[in-house]
Amino acid sequence: MSGRVFEKLLKECGVDVFNGAQGRILYVLWEHGQLTITEIGHLTSLAKSTLTAMLDRMEAEGLIERIPDKKNRRQILISVTEKAKGYREKYNWVSDKMSEIFYDGFSDAEIIEFEKQLRRIIRNLEKEGV
Questions:
Q1: Are strands 64-68 and 76-80 parallel, antiparallel or unpaired?
Q2: By C-alpha distance, which of 72, 91, 2 is closest to 34?
Q3: How far are the Cα atoms of 36, 50, 78, 79, 125 from residue 26, in angstroms, in the given order?
Q4: pLDDT of 64-115, one tens digit each?
Q5: By its UniProt entry, which Pfam families does this protein fall under (predicted)?
């Protein structure tokens, strides 16, 4: 459900070249710069097989580019294009709006406690290799 709301908000602010899952990929690239597919998978929790198809579509849309790693010829780095950089402000607005929707009616203390428990769940899942 949150994915549908996120994509609706993206469309409302004129973003129709990527969806919510692709936005997660762009977000980690905006934050970290060039990354390998493995690193993107770890940071987004997306499977490599899913990522490959998504990256192909994003490359065709002109959002990312694949760059050979100068230090390791077998490695390919993924980087955002100037076109993708132009969407960051709108993406951040949508992300902030989603937080407003998620936390509507929550007190600051409730938000802090909720996020603390979510981090605990994520750590538990990571221990299981998920």
A1: antiparallel
A2: 72
A3: 13, 15, 10, 9, 24
A4: 999 998 888 889 999 999 999 999 999 899 989 999 999 999 999 999 999 9
A5: MarR
Tokens 């132009």 belong to which residue?
86
DSSP at 71: S
Measure the CA–CA gap between 110 and 125, rounded to whole angstroms.
23
Strand partners, 79: 65
Alpha helix (H) residue ranges in 16-47: 20-32, 37-44
Nearest Cα residue to 91 out of 33, 36, 25, 2? 25
Nearest alpha-carbon partner for 51 in 64, 62, 70, 69: 64
Angstrom distance (rounded) from CA 126 to CA 100 = 27
Sign of the dihedral through C-alpha 7, 87, 37, 40: negative
* Number of residues that make up the chain: 130
- Give me the domains of the chain, ranges plus CATH numbers: 2-105 (1.10.10.10)
